[in-house]
Design goal:
alpha+beta; three-stranded antiparallel beta sheet; 4 helices; about 40% strand
Length: about 180
């Protein structure tokens, strides 16, 4: 793993916005919902909405994971991860993997269909709209989270179903492609 971070000088030292203000403002930014997973001896899943593409060449994505999350240790120890893009009918899956009381290890996947990714062994959730497998290429510390950059090793889509979004502190459903094109 390599990382190059260029610190920027602070323009407003001591006057950063309060966490509750940032949370309220960011609740107005709609995001997709994914389940991040790692396989092997650290098998784990976690719902995330801090996920995005970074680059097409080379193919890179990033996710942000709190240092305090069990997933943080599992992901950095494993060095690879899977991403399952949730469909509108998978809110129950997203809620399960967001629940800190869910079981550890393989038991957290027992209620859902899944298969091991062919390149990383990370669990990929059945019924997801799309999936990726990634190798960790950089980890950057950013406040109470790590920004984890992954090189995309494989991926595919599973159809044009309706997407699951997170907006205003709640899960929302995105209309399917055909409904958007007709409007």
């Amino acid at each position: 793993m390599s990382a190059h971070t260029t610190p920027m000088p602070s323009r407003a030292a001591g006057s950063a916005v309060a966490p509750d203000v940032l949370r309220r403002v960011m609740s107005r930014f709609a995001t997709g919902v994914v389940v991040l997973t790692v396989g092997g001896e650290h098998i784990r899943g976690m719902t995330a909405n801090a996920f995005t593409s970074v680059s097409l060449s080379p193919p890179l994505v990033l996710c942000c994971v709190a240092h305090s999350a069990v997933m943080h240790g599992a992901l950095t120890a494993t060095g690879a991860f899977g991403v399952s893009v949730m469909g509108a009918d998978q809110e129950h899956v997203a809620r399960h993997f967001a629940d800190k009381r869910r079981p550890d290890g393989r038991a957290q996947f027992e209620s859902f269909g899944w298969h091991s990714g062919p390149r990383t062994g990370a669990p990929l959730i059945g019924g997801a709209l799309a999936w990726l497998e990634c190798e960790v290429s950089a980890v950057h510390t950013a406040g109470d989270h790590s920004v984890i950059v992954g090189t995309v090793l494989s991926g595919d889509t599973a159809g044009d179903g309706s997407g699951l979004l997170f907006y205003g502190g709640a899960f929302r459903r995105l209309a399917p492609f055909d409904a958007l094109e007709a409007g």
